[in-house]
């Protein structure tokens, strides 16, 4: 990795960062310093100083890159805010009207309330430029006066203890008070005591103690952490021990695992808004918020001592890391956040893509590591360094939008030669409580998105996520170590055909933008969604009902060493529209034209070209992947240029148009199909030779079933058998007495691992029979109530309905 900075120079200027932040040492319950008597003014001043460092950063040289350029940009933006600030009735900046003529909670009022938060945000930028060295406005008295004038204007006009809320609750309880309190910390000595008191009264009004009374509604998960931050900072600014204590103690409900609703689950799932997987959105906010609050309160009278905090630290590896691959945060856990593209006023003109979305997360992990055990910190630092080193597309160290704090943390990590980058793990992870999974290899990774009675197809709200309808219909993302990292980052979402996301089976029935309405979170009526894993390979199934559609299907995936085997059956619809299964849809950038081979024959590279080719055995896209179609299929292929703007999918984004090229492969099931099916094998990163050889090797894969009742495969060379029993029955040598997902892996050492789950969460008893001689069962979970070995293995399971779709693993010794 080449950079324009000096490692030795950076180390010389950053060595005091951990000390300045007060982050050294390991989190231990009960280790807080106890104060005798009441807290003093010095105690609150110390917390303000620490928070100042946590929002500004520390230990970097303002004359060294990239900090010099970042600070200059900060100064430019602050000067522009200053120059255009024009206090008036109902606004602080022209065009940013917050005065609502008909205050209520409709979409129009949301727009007005958002301008309160945005106005405070502009003032914070000005305050930061005043406080940061090297901004060109450092210590500028005129700028300081403008910030104070602006805060006074907003207090007098709208953000005060007599104002009733309208629009979006978030702007009043989280967005505005956080910026206001951050400004108060940065300019604390320049506000009068009366000014501080009245700003605190305003926060008390909008964020009363009662918001912490119950862990429900908008006071859960990441929102609860943000509310606690608002309250803790109000306590620090206003000198209230009670507010800090209440804010700290109100974090405790966030730590335990949940079994329904918002929060972290024992399997690593994270849910917000009841049914939305959100590790890359609200989960990242929660992670960052807790990291900063842990650091702020550590070694004070209010240190977080709840033992559950350690359980939260464990979520870094069990919940967050599986969705970060080579420096990007997978889009399928960021929901409507992936449509937050260009904003017209953004001086960088950079969308919030999967790469820069991960950069803040990486900084948060480094910050959290300073309070974790030495072993955890070492693993996390190596993990983050590996992600940064392997990201060839959108590197964190060159992200102009990354905060100075996060930039300094990641540069310090990069400069430490004692920290060696960790490689990508080889693992398969299932997250049954959010209908997601990840499959990771050294040279590629994939992730699957599904929907069920528990998890929504998609989310729209605040004008965002308008065309993400089909992201829960078996959307299969994948990336290579040295290719494909730009797939979803290069203006994908405004330009892709939303009916042709990779992997989905979909009705082409036209849908309207945001269909279903804000926050509706439409869910299908099928519960059988999930799978099993032995930690390396996996078997997955989705009983699919299309969103706002009559289309139904049974979809299955089998995750192997270099391959994903994909099956579909029972595909039926009565929408009066065509139904397709999208094998893949590659974003080729602005000018890409990789060669496409169909059964070894090169196809045209001209835009607008298409074909429908019967009997296709295999396809290969140069630099991307190979695809094998067992028994042959009629394959459709299309090269096209598509143009779109971020405003098309997010009403608050830029209307600037972008054009990107796509190469799409799909199977057409026709209009209103009845019991259609498909089968294909995807080989990410495979060469032409490997793809052709796999297509010719008829012994490599046996499709043992592909019907609405069961779907299964067997790969003898890997000792692999996987079956989705949608109904009781027999497939090959495996019989299940009830619906279940089953996977068996035989090893050459005479052992085998049998994995079973109940994705439907309805099975109260299951007998599984494997017609294979077995000597003994060497380990089994408590769910197994009886075992019979000998000429065949018979396992009896008790009630699986309450196991939340988890994998039950049985180890046996074969004859």
TrEMBL record:
Q: Which residues form the Polysaccharide lyase 8 N-terminal alpha-helical domain?
A: 51-385
Task: Cite the GO molecular-function annotations of the record.
Answer: carbohydrate binding; carbon-oxygen lyase activity, acting on polysaccharides
Signal peptide range equals 1-34
Q: Which keywords describe this protein according to UniProt?
A: Lyase, Signal
Q: Does the keyword DNA repair apply?
A: no
Active site (record annotation): 273, 282, 336
Tell me the Gene Ontology biological-process terms attached to this UniProt entry.
Answer: carbohydrate metabolic process
Protein name, as recorded: Polysaccharide lyase 8 family protein
Say which species the protein is native to: Streptomyces mesophilus
């Amino acid at each position: 990795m080449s950079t324009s900075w000096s490692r030795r120079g950076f180390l010389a200027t950053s060595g005091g960062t951990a000390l300045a932040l007060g982050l050294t040492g390991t989190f231990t319950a009960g280790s807080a310093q106890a104060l005798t008597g009441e807290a003093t003014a010095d105690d609150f001043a110390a917390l303000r100083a620490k928070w100042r460092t946590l929002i500004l950063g520390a230990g970097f040289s303002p004359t060294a890159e990239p900090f010099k350029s970042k600070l200059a940009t900060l100064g430019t933006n602050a000067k522009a805010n200053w120059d255009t600030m024009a206090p008036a009735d109902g606004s602080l900046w022209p065009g940013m009207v917050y005065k609502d003529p008909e205050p209520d909670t409709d979409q129009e009022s949301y727009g007005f309330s958002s301008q309160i938060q945005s106005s405070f945000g502009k003032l914070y930028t000005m305050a930061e430029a005043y406080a940061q060295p090297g901004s060109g406005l450092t210590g500028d008295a005129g700028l300081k006066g403008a910030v104070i004038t602006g805060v006074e204007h907003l207090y007098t006009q709208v953000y005060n203890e007599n104002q009733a809320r309208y629009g979006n609750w978030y702007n009043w309880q989280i967005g505005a008070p956080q910026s206001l309190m951050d400004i108060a910390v940065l300019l604390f000595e320049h506000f009068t005591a009366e000014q501080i008191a009245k700003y605190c009264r305003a926060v008390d009004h909008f964020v009363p103690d009662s918001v912490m009374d119950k862990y429900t509604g908008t006071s859960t998960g990441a929102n609860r952490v943000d509310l606690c931050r608002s309250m803790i900072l109000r306590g620090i600014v206003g000198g209230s021990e009670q507010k800090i204590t209440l804010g700290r103690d109100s974090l405790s409900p966030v730590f335990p695992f949940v079994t329904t609703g918002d929060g972290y689950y024992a399997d690593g799932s994270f849910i917000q808004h009841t049914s939305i997987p959100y590790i890359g959105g609200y989960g990242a906010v929660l992670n960052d918020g807790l990291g900063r609050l842990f650091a702020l309160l550590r070694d004070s009278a209010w240190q977080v001592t709840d033992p559950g905090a350690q359980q939260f630290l464990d979520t870094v590896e069990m919940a967050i890391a599986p969705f970060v691959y080579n420096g990007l945060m997978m889009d399928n856990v960021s929901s409507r956040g992936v449509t937050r593209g260009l904003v017209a006023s953004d001086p960088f003109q950079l969308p919030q893509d999967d790469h820069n979305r991960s950069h803040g997360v990486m900084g948060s992990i480094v910050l959290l590591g300073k309070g974790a055990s030495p072993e955890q910190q070492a693993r996390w630092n190596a993990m983050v360094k590996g992600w940064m080193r392997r990201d060839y597309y959108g590197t964190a160290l060159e992200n102009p939008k990354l905060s100075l704090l996060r930039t300094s943390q990641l540069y310090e990590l990069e400069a430490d030669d004692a920290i060696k980058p960790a490689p990508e793990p080889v693992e398969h992870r299932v997250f049954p409580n959010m209908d997601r999974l990840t499959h990771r290899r050294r040279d590629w990774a994939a992730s699957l998105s599904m929907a069920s009675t528990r998890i929504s197809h998609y989310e729209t709200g605040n004008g965002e996520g308008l065309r993400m309808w089909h992201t829960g219909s078996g959307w299969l993302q994948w990336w290579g170590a040295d290719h494909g990292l730009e797939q979803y980052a290069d203006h994908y979402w405004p330009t892709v055909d939303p009916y042709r996301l990779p992997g989905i089976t979909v009705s082409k029935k036209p849908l309207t933008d945001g269909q279903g309405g804000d926050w509706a979170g439409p869910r299908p009526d099928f519960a059988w969604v999930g799978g099993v894993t032995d930690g390396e390979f996996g078997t997955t199934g989705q009983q699919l009902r299309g969103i706002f559609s009559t289309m139904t299907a049974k979809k299955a995936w089998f995750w192997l060493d270099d391959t994903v085997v994909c099956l579909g059956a029972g595909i039926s619809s009565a929408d009066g529209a065509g139904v397709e299964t999208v094998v893949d849809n590659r974003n080729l950038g602005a000018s890409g034209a990789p060669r496409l081979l169909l059964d070894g024959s090169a196809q045209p590279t001209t835009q607008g070209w298409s074909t429908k080719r019967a009997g296709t055995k295999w396809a290969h896209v140069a630099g991307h992947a190979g695809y094998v179609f067992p028994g042959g299929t009629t394959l459709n292929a299309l090269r096209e240029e598509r143009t779109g703007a971020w405003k098309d999918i997010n009403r608050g984004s830029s209307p600037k148009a972008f054009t990107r090229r796509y190469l799409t492969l799909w199977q057409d099931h026709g209009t209103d199909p009845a019991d259609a099916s498909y089968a294909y094998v995807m080989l990410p990163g495979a060469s032409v030779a490997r793809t052709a050889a796999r297509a010719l090797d008829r012994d490599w894969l046996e499709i043992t079933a592909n019907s609405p009742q069961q779907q299964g495969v067997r790969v003898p060379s890997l000792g692999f058998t996987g079956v989705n029993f949608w109904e009781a029955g027999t497939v090959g040598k495996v019989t299940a007495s009830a619906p279940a997902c089953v996977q068996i892996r035989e090893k050459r050492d005479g052992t085998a691992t049998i994995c079973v789950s109940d994705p439907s969460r309805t099975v109260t008893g299951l007998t599984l029979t494997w017609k294979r001689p077995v000597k003994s069962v060497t380990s089994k979970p408590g769910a197994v109530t009886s075992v019979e070995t000998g000429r065949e293995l018979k396992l009896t399971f008790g009630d699986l309905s309450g196991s939340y779709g988890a994998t039950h693993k049985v180890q046996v010794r074969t004859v």
